[in-house]
Design brief:
This protein is an alpha/beta fold. It is built from 7 helices and 5 strands.
Length: 132
């Protein structure tokens, strides 16, 4: 499965900890991430992450294009709902595209954990019907 990862600045450490905790599961899949998030995840997990540009430099659009091509099976976008900064990527387009293409998206740790555990159980077989 293809998993997209990104996080607002205030949630990047949480993303690192999440990826450390679920390294065993994530290592069985192909990971894509916005530039800074991907670099930080690689540093602490030694997982191979295909990195887009930094979110504010176009990485969010690159992830959006992959979602539009129906080439991601799960997106984890840990966002800071209290203080999003103007220079941070806007989550609304990614959310909209995931909804359009029936791609599960987690915007908080609790949902991310549920989706990762669900994927590990094999509950994502439905994604095979949506892929081109």
């Amino acid at each position: 499965m293809n998993i997209g990862l990104t996080a607002h600045d205030a949630k990047k450490k949480l993303m690192q900890n999440f990826c450390i905790a679920y390294r065993g599961i994530l290592s069985k899949h192909t990971l894509f991430a916005t530039g800074t998030t991907g670099r930080l995840v690689e540093e602490v997990t030694n997982l191979n992450v295909h990195k887009y540009l930094s979110g504010r430099l176009g990485g969010e659009q690159q992830m959006g294009a992959q979602i539009e091509a129906n080439d991601l099976d799960l997106v984890i976008f840990l966002r800071d709902p209290e203080e999003p900064k103007p220079e941070e990527p806007d989550v609304s387009n990614v959310l909209r595209l995931c909804d359009m293409h029936n791609i599960p998206i987690a915007t908080n740790l609790a949902t991310a954990e549920l989706l990762i555990k669900s994927m590990e159980r094999g509950d994502f077989e439905f994604r095979n019907y949506y892929r081109h």
